[in-house]
Amino acid sequence: MVRRSLLLAFALALMGAISSAQQAPAPARVAGNRPDCVSVGAQAVFNGSGYNHLVTISNACPASVTCQVTTNINPQATSVTVARSSSETINTYFNAAGYGFSATVHCHNAAR
To answer: pLDDT tens digits for 31-55?
Structure first.
C-alpha cells in the first residue's frame, strides 16, 4: 500500500514537471539588421498540441518600420509594418512538433 502511494506521488510529480516544462516559453535566437530603436524577441509557446513560434517586434523609432520576418522552420518571409511606439507579434508557425527555432528580422523605415 505504501509502495503504491509512493509510486502514485512520483508519477504525479513527474507529470507536473513535464506539464510545466511544456508550457514554459522557450526563447529563440534572433538575427537580422534593424535600427537601434527596434527590439525583437522570439519564443516558442506550447499550446496544448504543439508549439507556436512567436516573434515580437517593438518599435521605439519616431516613425513606422517595415520588417521582413523569416525563421529556419518557416523560410517564407512575412512582412509587417509596426507603427511608432507600438509592438506586433507574428505567429510564424502553428503547432510545431518542437520548440527550437531561430528568427531573422530585417527592418527599415516604412517611408522608404
So the answer is: 999 999 999 999 999 999 999 999 9
Is pLDDT at 20 greater than 50 in this prediction?
no
| Domain CATH for 27 | 2.60.40
Range of the domain at 68: 23-109
Neighbour count for residue 35 (Cβ, 10 Å)? 13
Report residue 92 as a C-alpha cell: 510564424
pTM to 2 decimal places = 0.76
5 has a pLDDT exceeding 90: no
- Asked whether residue 79 is domain-assigned, the answer is yes
The answer to whether residue 16 is domain-embedded is no
The alpha carbon of residue 78 and the mean position of all alpha carbons in its chain are separated, in whole angstroms, by: 15
Integer Cα distance of 92 and 70 in angstroms: 8
Is 13 inside any structural domain? no
Q: Is residue 18 part of a domain?
A: no
